[in-house]
Sequence to fold (379 residues):
Amino acid sequence: MDTTLKQENKFLVALKKVGRAFKNQTFLYIVKRVLSSLFTLVLLVALVTALIRLLPDTKFYDVATYKKIAGTSKVMANRWRSMQLFLAGRADANGNPVPVLYSIGRYILNILPYYKTIPQSWTDYSCTTVLESWTGFVYLGYSKSMSSYVTNVIASRMGISFRISLYTIIFSYLFAVPLGIAMAKKPGGTVDKIGNVFIVLNYAIPGLVFYLVMWDVLGNANGAFGWANFGLAYDETRPLTLVPPIFCIVFLGIPGISIWVRRFMIDELSSDYVKFARSKGLSENRIMYTHVLRNAMVPLVRNIPATFLGAIIGSYYVEKIWTIPGTGLLLVKALQGVTPDIDLIEGLTVIYAAISMVSFLLGDLITILFDPRIKLESN
Fold:
């Protein structure tokens, strides 16, 4: 009897906690944003899948290879073409066309995060039956250009992009925020003028030109920094080879952060609460770092998740110049092949969209942590 009462009490306590959670505006806001993001993601998948289906079948197999096989056997050539269309999701294992709505529904089920096994089998032009199955939670397809599953391709390349992203965010804010503060302390002063000159010159330099110049200056063994042995290409066994690309990204990213810190802090310095703090005799440093900086950082902090998660996507130019095997080159590689790597394109689209949605939600949550005056409403 006592055991039954204890179980009932536990159930009532859990029920009350759930009830309180659904009365919390922040919790309701998060639930609403997650559901709307999932709905948007489903619509995006449907749209991309439908647009891809508008492409002709010849975009999904090499016509030259088909003609070469057809010169030997028309039957084998048709089987080979059917296999390519099957791998692209445009036909079933027997070569019959797959309806658009079926393709959309199947892809949505594949990306839903539940444990599943997806069997794959086809008969190639040599009449050899290939049996294979994929097991996991999120299936994004099989990349023909990388000869691997899309989830494995992205996972293997996201690590290096994540490291570069982490370092660049840390060092960018480490240098940009103090510069912005120093410029805001005395607008029009020496530091402010020097900072503005640096910002203008930085914006005037084309990013690609700067990357190429730094690639040669920092990586050339016979140059001024040859003693550091950074190298012209990334080497996973030598972490120092990441210094040039990280330096370039940080250097070009400092002005954008510092100019916003300066702007927001100058706006805050003219607020009534700053005048009141000065009238109470608080020091300028205490006003600057205790009150003004915290309020000025709220808009910038909100963008940190978007900047961080966005950087994980990778930079095409940086990865191309320093031959970094990150995610920045994947989409270009998927489009440049003899036939487009449709699974990789669709998979990257889903990942990029999901990253964007998560970053916006995290930005809102971080904002309320830095500024308790802001409340997230569910409506």
